[in-house]
Amino acid sequence: MIDTFNRGLLNFLAASPTPFHAVENMANALIDAGFTRLREGDEWDLQRGGRYFITRNDASIIAFVKGLSDEVETGIRMVGAHTDSPNLKLKPQPDIYTKGYWQLGVEVYGGVLRAPWMDRDLSLAGRVTIRDTAGQLQNLLVNFEDPIAIIPNLAIHLDREANDKGAPNPQEQMAPVLGQCDDDHKPSLNALLLNYIEANYSDLQVDSILDHELSFYDVQRASLVGINKDFIASARLDNLLSCYIGLEAMISAGTDVSTVLICTDHEEVGSMSATGAQGPMLESLLRRWLGSDETVARVLDRSMMISVDNAHGVHPNYVNKHDNNHGPLLNQGPVIKINANQRYATTSETSAQFRTLCADAGVACQAFVTRADMGCGSTIGPITAAELGVKTIDVGVPTFAMHSIRELAGSLDSFNLVAVLKAFYVMKNAPGAAR
């Protein structure tokens, strides 16, 4: 079962180079599992036992089950993750021509670990918005798949201090090279996209390309590595790994209890957008679903959110970067993330609930607290807790090299966390301590 799960995870990671692709793949999986797509602009008629999902801007998705049990009695079981990952995103007018080379200008999206992007085989993917010959606007998914670009390092002979310096400058030293050109025959992104659309959307008549949201990505596929295949190495483990975990749990959940899976965009840049966790997407859905403010308040009081995002595993080469008592190990279970300054939303009550779920599922769990002299990242957990007032816990799979172009996680942890989330989704008693 673990092998089957990991093969599915690896395929999902490979097929999801951008949030747009991840959401399309999740939507297709939900449809195959019997979920019904709803449009936010349509009138809804939600039925008990119904399984539904919505998307927004093609990059955020919420799947939900309107359970057979009354939500006022049981509450709603919620799991949250995010679809975006740090990357190099194309600028609006990216074409650069220098010394006979064609490059594309990029800006850094999120907290990219920049140095690992050098000397990698890169492709380009995302969304393009066009106007067709009938005057209609259309969004098209794009994924070149083949390695079409690279960011070469400067030779050590030309910079003897290179190993002592910091990361490359993203404005001056990280424009990917796509090929060579001359003054009479200059390639362009627009021409490249038109050729792609002609080859992949043969029935579409394009009048003009109006805009794009495109990012470079490493074409090396996700893989199991290590003598005993102990690890998963891949781009975008933060946080597509959590999206896949939540998806697998949601698809297998029953219809007795109301459940939600929300995977939003823009977490890596603060979540403040129409499609981010700090936007109105989840609250809007809950109000349409539950009706009055009175009902929403009563349901949320009996509900709980598990925010799932990767945790920092203790690195064997950097052990001193962790608190001695809180260094999570890969393949030793999901991690409860705790921070006194509310960078994580975990409370003793939600932690106790999660530990109970782990024990009942036969899964070990760990705890992470950052060193007292170091800063701490954050997640959608505190944002969702603040927006909704729902009991929330932050958990995740321990990971190395977070925000690198290729990250590393344990090959057992995701499968074990799915087991815990499956138990959470079918839990009938309202979460929380006795009152």
Automatic annotation (TrEMBL):
GO terms for biological process: proteolysis. Keywords: Aminopeptidase, Hydrolase, Metal-binding, Metalloprotease, Protease, Zinc. One of its GO terms (cellular component) is cytoplasm. Its EC number is 3.4.11.-. PANTHER family: ASPARTYL AMINOPEPTIDASE. One of its GO terms (molecular function) is aminopeptidase activity. Pfam families: Peptidase_M18 (PF02127). Belongs to the peptidase M18 family. InterPro entries: Peptidase_M18 (IPR001948), Peptidase_M18_dom2 (IPR023358). The keyword Zinc applies. This is M18 family aminopeptidase. Its cofactor is Zn(2+).
